[in-house]
Amino acid sequence: MLIVMDKTATQEQIDRVIGSIEKKGYTARPIPGGDRMAIGVLRNKGAVDASLFLGLEGVKDVVPVTRAYKLVSREFQPEDTVIKVRDAVIGNGHMAIIAGPCAVESEIQALTIAEHVKKAGADLFRGGAFKPRTSPYSFQGLGEQGLKILAKVREETGLGIITEVMDYETFDMVEEYSDIIQIGTRNMQNFSLLKRAGHAKKPVCLKRGMAATIDEWLMAAEYIMEGGNTQVILCERGVRTFVNHSRNTLDVSAVPVVRKESHLPIIIDPSHAAGRRDQVIPLSRASVAAGAHGLMVEVHHDPDNAMSDGAQSLYPSQFESLCRQVDSIYKLLNNTGQDNL
Amino acid sequence: MLIVMDKTATQEQIDRVIGSIEKKGYTARPIPGGDRMAIGVLRNKGAVDASLFLGLEGVKDVVPVTRAYKLVSREFQPEDTVIKVRDAVIGNGHMAIIAGPCAVESEIQALTIAEHVKKAGADLFRGGAFKPRTSPYSFQGLGEQGLKILAKVREETGLGIITEVMDYETFDMVEEYSDIIQIGTRNMQNFSLLKRAGHAKKPVCLKRGMAATIDEWLMAAEYIMEGGNTQVILCERGVRTFVNHSRNTLDVSAVPVVRKESHLPIIIDPSHAAGRRDQVIPLSRASVAAGAHGLMVEVHHDPDNAMSDGAQSLYPSQFESLCRQVDSIYKLLNNTGQDNL
Amino acid sequence: MLIVMDKTATQEQIDRVIGSIEKKGYTARPIPGGDRMAIGVLRNKGAVDASLFLGLEGVKDVVPVTRAYKLVSREFQPEDTVIKVRDAVIGNGHMAIIAGPCAVESEIQALTIAEHVKKAGADLFRGGAFKPRTSPYSFQGLGEQGLKILAKVREETGLGIITEVMDYETFDMVEEYSDIIQIGTRNMQNFSLLKRAGHAKKPVCLKRGMAATIDEWLMAAEYIMEGGNTQVILCERGVRTFVNHSRNTLDVSAVPVVRKESHLPIIIDPSHAAGRRDQVIPLSRASVAAGAHGLMVEVHHDPDNAMSDGAQSLYPSQFESLCRQVDSIYKLLNNTGQDNL
Amino acid sequence: MLIVMDKTATQEQIDRVIGSIEKKGYTARPIPGGDRMAIGVLRNKGAVDASLFLGLEGVKDVVPVTRAYKLVSREFQPEDTVIKVRDAVIGNGHMAIIAGPCAVESEIQALTIAEHVKKAGADLFRGGAFKPRTSPYSFQGLGEQGLKILAKVREETGLGIITEVMDYETFDMVEEYSDIIQIGTRNMQNFSLLKRAGHAKKPVCLKRGMAATIDEWLMAAEYIMEGGNTQVILCERGVRTFVNHSRNTLDVSAVPVVRKESHLPIIIDPSHAAGRRDQVIPLSRASVAAGAHGLMVEVHHDPDNAMSDGAQSLYPSQFESLCRQVDSIYKLLNNTGQDNL
After folding, report:
1. Which domains does chain B have, with CATH numbers?
2. Interface of A with B in 247-306 (CB under 8 A)
3. pLDDT of D185-202, one tens digit each?
């Protein structure tokens, strides 16, 4: 961390800042410049809290240097983390496509869609049993009945399943049924839930908060890893901006940044990013081309009558086309060599 | 809701949309325009989910008309909700100032600050016992010990207390100790927590999510009211934007909008909006001038050594000045008549 | 346009709104709903200004239905516009790669880079002669001397050239030298410049403003087309958001949206979106995969000593790799058929 | 500036960075930390361009320390700049209220409104003669005829006038007629226009770009001051964010930040920030309470029939109320002492 002093800072103020740094167990290194003094903060393990110094008299600015995450960083673990779930492999050159409806609505619905997506090439099946909804008056999911249907889907199709957990109380139940546990965008900084996920025996798919920086997202993953669970998949799903032609703005650049900073696999959910069916295929192609380790896509055999997110769900035939296209791009990139990614 | 068709939409597509509307129990009203057809959706109680129709063939756009919240709306309850906690009154012309440290660090710290802020004019005391922190390596709060210290503060000073609840598991405990239960910005759409808060016997202070629209925020409050708890205070604390001179961007316009749309009181937290001490007093003045029903301000007797958020905590003398200034503005506005707000 | 009335709106207020609509030459169509009245505004050519009605008493909201652009819309011209400049073709299945330095620094620099990029597969050469710089103390470009160097590059390599115009005064000069005239992100709503570009004899490449919606961007293109110049290329270059790991956030979804709404070709500038060299290749792959008609990339033979934007300029060898990769993706997508895009 | 190296950076990479710094005429100061090396860049006048170093091998991050603006900074000129225009004084404790219609529509309209606002307490009259409009089909202003009407207003009422200039070609004309020259939000980084404004003999009111940081805004003002014109007024008018209940999000915190960083006066335009009449008065109160040196407000005697921006224009009676309210707040704050601001 670097503390930048006002041009007019007095020696007394500078000394007070140095004292404050040392009192906290760090080493202070004054760096006189042309115009003003800066003070380096050294010997810190991990990041120092900028707010500890920002308010001291004579301090103009505090500039963080070290990132705060550790276990999730590539500096800590240079090799890619690989997640294996039944036949699916995610990470280190392996791509997985997760597909299914927004919400599990009935056994027949789930099975119908599962057969479609399996045939088209999906590696895992998604479907919500507990649904986070903006309105208390919207369909909230089938709960445990939905989980049982998901288990049935797995039994019938052999596809591993992923579903969202919304709270501590139902965590055990979701953990029991699901192959991958999803933590949604609205819970990315639900730290109690993250801590519980740190003790889970199943991989966790952590969606990016809709206003989270990559640092905050990786810190949320750090909560899970710090609890002992090293099986974390990161999922970019669009961030909130002024842009109004899609529900969220897909931040494709998150892919190269996460791949550089972290060893964890990163997948993309183009359906929630777009919020409109007609953008899902182009965004899927873009995601795989950018180097994502997988996709999570909403598919419904009858989206016009879906109980939620119908507008962004693909028809089965569209999903088949998506699979063919991203598969070609993926093979192309991997044939031309991993170093290109 | 209004469904706008493509210029090139066929009669068959139009009929299919009408069928889809009626199948869901609504009334469809075609509105032929110069260039294209629009279709109104009528007889709906509350909002209709736009995504139900956005994906249908021939549909260009879906335009929501009715807002989805009900219990929180001023159309539902024209009179201001007033929250009374010990001697403090919030809403309908009554302003309350909530002050205290970011985190309860020790009994002596909490009592020292409480005495300062009470003397300066604070109506309620704040202090975190359970702290949501971006990093798992940061101080996470004293937990129940912190709650006991808060109870001691109330006993000694007579000030009502407010503290944050982070999860279902510790909700009972927080509810027992605290006079007002705070739900933090990162949990604004933690729906399990909101549902639990709906059964709480204490008022709830619901902070705005850092990327939440006012509609989403009011819908989160609707979750609480729908559970039976009518005592909700809304707290604006800045939203996340590209702006980089403050930690968040205080959205002052939330005050007139919430006051128009809802009967619930709205207060402002300038400390988290700014993230820097030197903006807190001007933002406090602005908030009260805009018509806020109160402020929540971080104060520390020794911010240079605070365990969290030191940079944004006011010194006691600054807080005294803040109280004097906002009190004058408040009186001025209320003497010139409520109709001006 | 749809005007939504308050639930409590009186018949008198409704009548006043209807009168106001008709006074402006439109047709008013009242649409009684369950709870409240809405009023459709019909017989309007193009969009009606929402602000004309938003302030009337009893009006809760005004909802635009028709988009305001006309000449740029696909509804107006269903076939793709194709831009041809020397050997380069942009649009309708033709992709072009534009490459070169941020600024023209010298003849030797420009020629060296031009040879590199031509050999690697670039179709057009870019280079700034007039540079918009945040600081008045930064290098502002070589001016006309830079334009002469660009002409020399064209003469020597046969590549068409593109360079930015910053104002009316130098427009004639830029138009004389350059094959494509670029209007930069900061001038997207410099309407005087757009009007001048409407009379230009050369194609115009219009960069998206960093906080512009697609509607505003297309309206800016409408200014140019309305002046008579139908040769417009749209260039997405990232928008400003809270995200801090790249200089701007590349909005890949702009590609499918623009391709759907407009007949104009859309290219992507990944260099300015990223602001960092290590994101440029992944973003380029993503852009072409999403369906962009081209790329504009910064390349420098000695970026460590570039006079501007060195950090985001590719080394020539990186640019070669980029060309190989995007070329493969482009061919792949076009072999699998245009309907997939 | 501080250059942070990768943990794995080699000594050779470090030496190369040091060489690169020194080659540019700066002094390099290596700062070894616990984990990694950082390198300070010293002896620089003004800011160093981060992009010069960000792309070098082994460099993880580049951290700017010094701000780039000079003439506009309070470090350069500690005393407040004061702008005097006829009877109006802006800055250093003097507040001015600028009011009038969005666009000058006719002599009778302008005079009618001018009389209203003068009587209510306005210090200056605003009105657009050249109007920047998103659509080429919207009313573009009366041009020189509008300027003549403004001159008539000045003659009849004695109020100084302010109007927007859109380009170089009409600059002389606007400069001749207007007392203050306004540069609009869309032209904040129209550097050709800024340079021309640097030679103007009249004060310039520079609106903040809708996606501009304060640094960029002050740098734009630096362009004007660097040209020799020291009479610059900064005008905050809301920034573009995801927030959808107002047209833009008023960034009130810009007031204390600008007042701290710069000696230039800052005023607020609540009308364009809100885009809706019902937020204008609360935002005006908030602005003055935050310490703004003035307001620019749209007023129309018949907003329902205004040719532009009717929805955000106040009725004369509302403007009277606004003046009374902000005047009271202003007096209150200045009686309690300037040091509170």
Report:
1. 2-63 (3.30.70.1140), 83-340 (3.20.20.70)
2. 275-277, 303-306
3. 999 999 999 999 999 999
